[in-house]
Write a structure and sequence with these properties.
This protein is an alpha+beta fold. It contains 13 helices and 24 strands. It has three domains: 167 residues, no CATH class; 79 residues, no CATH class; 288 residues, 2-Layer Sandwich (Major capsid protein gp5 fold). Helix content is 21%, strand content 27%. Strands 1, 2, 3, 4, 5, 6, 7, 8 and 9 form a nine-stranded mixed sheet that branches. A hairpin with a 6-residue loop joins strand 10 and strand 11. The protein is extended and about 110 Å long.
């Protein structure tokens, strides 16, 4: 143990009312006495460089006192200088496994002590919301408005040979104790060790443990549980089931006790009877039936009804690509999009040499213009009022509205990239003249690259040809910045599995593949799987789209943005919810996208 400490001070105090009305009660952190925890800068747990040293905790009646020691890292020594210079004057603790009783914090586990900027937090308060239950994983940062004090490094070690802080080295530091009342006696290093004191009145009594006892205390719950035999584990399962009934934290009754129906006296299941019940359960295969056979009538306490875990799990396609598409497109405050481009690549647009006496020929520039008008995209949902009332496990309306927005975004992202895929005869089809998909757009805006692999080509050969064509066709891309490759998961896997002639994987990470393809990112789009077009006897399978969606404009007038409406149908007793948007979409820059397809011959019947 260190013989000197760099500073000391209150890590937290008892009976201080926090800004949210909660109070840290005496004994909440009593079990942390004499524990050493990391000393951290401002509760930043993301980097080991933020560990400045360690702190020894000392439980006192007024709170938890800390003795800090800085490490020899540059960060530790810098913090030491800040403290010694008076720049940093406050401490704070980070605790978890919190338990609350009527606004009183009665239990917690201190994980670290931090140096904090005192000026930002004038009083003690808890940032996290506490939940019931000692086994809670809720965490809290508890601030303290007390200032830290410096320890003198040149202090004589002989005065304290064990290096243990006494907390009372300067009588003025502890106004609760008056040395004049006992001038002939040396102040006790640990008052709680006085055998004449009543242990019931001293919360620190009995905190000193042997090494063997401390080792036992340091065991995790799982380690302790693993030491139990099968019968003991069955009893733990039963007790936990009873304790968790109806979501309560405290067991209101003993699951193994009851009233004798004949005498009215308490009936108790003895340990011998319990063992016999377990043996019967092993034979019959039913623990519940075995307990009933031994007179345990309140069996529902041991085997409570199943409880819902909340909102149901949603089965859907991978939606990660949707957010990327919606964030990447550019937005226009006007729903009618007009794009204009001038083609100056033709020979007629070139500058010309002049021959004396000849007539000068004017330049010819081809103008490209198109206008895209808006369309409405919507999703309508109805719920019977009886269902809304009967579903109590979760807020079905909130869940449904969230699902509607997710599905609307997916439909818009699909329409921007490849179209909605519905037949032209479908009344639900999103008109491709209003929201023009990149796949299938005019050749002036989308360049099409067709690969024709051999009929017997392997997946690896097709993937290699795909990579080569992306690299070779990069010169055709005239869009903004570095494009993104949108493809399928299967296509990406085949590219990552490519091997060289020695059997070594060529692209062992996606980043290496991105560098080889000269793209900003590779995004897999589940709805691209199976997308194709048929022209005569030929089928063209979509394998990739190269585009920077900043060149794709989405326009919506004021009022045409995404909106949610709800109504109630009295005649049918139904809630109705509608989410819709009225917008247009189209590429605005010529040759800003490249589509890659594999050509196959359609089999003739």
């Amino acid at each position: 143990m260190d013989k000197t400490w760099d500073f000391k001070g209150w890590a937290t105090r008892h009976n201080v009312k926090c800004s949210d009305g909660r109070i840290i009660k005496e004994g909440a952190f009593q079990h942390n006495n004499n524990q050493t925890v990391p000393l951290v800068w401002n509760h930043n747990h993301t980097d080991a460089d933020n560990v400045l040293g360690h702190a020894l905790l000392e439980y006192r009646k007024e709170g938890v006192y800390a003795y800090g020691k800085f490490n020899n890292t540059s960060q530790g020594q810098n913090a030491k200088e800040l403290v010694h210079n008076g720049d940093i004057t406050a401490l704070s603790i980070y605790a978890n496994q919190l338990k609350e009783n009527n606004k009183d914090v009665i239990h917690g586990n201190i994980r670290e002590v931090s140096l904090v900027l005192a000026g930002a937090n004038p009083g003690a308060y808890i940032e996290a919301v506490l939940v019931h239950g000692e086994a809670s994983k809720e965490e809290a940062v508890i601030w303290n408005n007390g200032e830290i004090e410096l320890e003198h490094s040149e202090k004589n070690p002989d005065e304290n040979p064990e290096g243990k802080p006494d907390g009372n080295e300067n009588p003025e530091e502890n106004p609760d104790e008056n040395p004049e009342e006992n001038p002939d006696e040396k102040p006790k290093e640990n008052p709680e060790e006085d055998p004449e004191e009543d242990p019931e009145e001293d919360p620190q009594k009995g905190l000193e443990h042997s090494k063997e006892e401390k080792d036992k205390m340091d065991k995790t719950i799982q380690e302790v549980f693993d030491t139990l035999n099968e019968e003991q584990k069955l009893m733990v399962y039963a007790l936990v089931g009873a304790a968790q009934q109806e979501g309560e934290n405290d067991m209101k009754q003993n699951a193994f006790e009851g009233k004798d129906l004949e005498t009215g006296e308490d009936k108790v299941l003895t340990h011998a009877e319990f063992e016999e019940a377990v043996k019967d359960a092993k034979k019959s295969g039913s623990l519940k039936d075995a307990f009933i056979a031994h007179g345990i009538t309140n069996i529902d306490t041991l085997f409570p009804e199943e409880q819902s875990l909340g909102a149901p799990e949603t089965i859907s396609r991978d939606m990660e690509w949707v957010a990327g598409v919606m964030a990447a497109v550019s937005r226009s405050p006007f729903s009618r999009i007009k794009s204009t481009a001038l083609n100056i690549t033709a020979d007629e647009a070139r500058a010309k040499g002049y021959v004396k006496g000849a007539q000068k020929v004017e330049e010819v520039i081809t103008s490209l213009k198109r206008v895209t008008t808006p369309t409405t995209v919507y999703k309508l949902q109805k719920l019977d009022r009886d269902d809304v009332i009967d579903i109590t496990d979760f807020d079905v309306i909130v869940y449904m509205k969230s699902e509607m927005r997710v599905m609307l975004n997916e439909e818009l992202a699909r329409a921007f990239l490849i179209g909605d895929g519905r037949s032209g005869a479908s009344p639900d089809k999103i008109n491709p003249l209003n929201i023009r998909p990149v796949y299938g757009d005019d050749p002036v805006y989308t360049v099409v690259r067709t690969l024709t692999p051999a009929a017997d080509a392997t997946l690896a050969q097709k993937a290699k040809a795909f990579i080569q064509d992306i690299v070779r066709s990069r010169k055709l891309y005239k869009g903004s910045g570095n494009p993104t490759l949108y493809t399928t998961e299967d296509q990406l896997v085949e590219m990552l599995l490519l091997e060289d002639t020695n059997g070594r994987v060529i692209y062992d990470t996606v980043d290496k593949l991105k560098t080889a393809l000269r793209v900003k990112n590779i995004v897999t789009v589940p709805v691209m799987e199976g997308v194709n077009r048929v022209v005569g006897e030929d089928q063209f399978d979509l394998v990739g789209i190269l585009v920077n969606l900043i060149d794709y404009a989405v326009g919506a007038d004021r009022g045409g943005e995404v909106s949610m409406f709800d109504d109630f149908d009295l005649n049918f007793n139904k809630y109705e919810y509608l989410i819709e948007t009225r917008c247009s979409g189209a590429l605005k820059k010529p040759y800003s996208a490249i589509v890659f397809e594999n050509k196959t011959v359609v089999a003739q019947g």
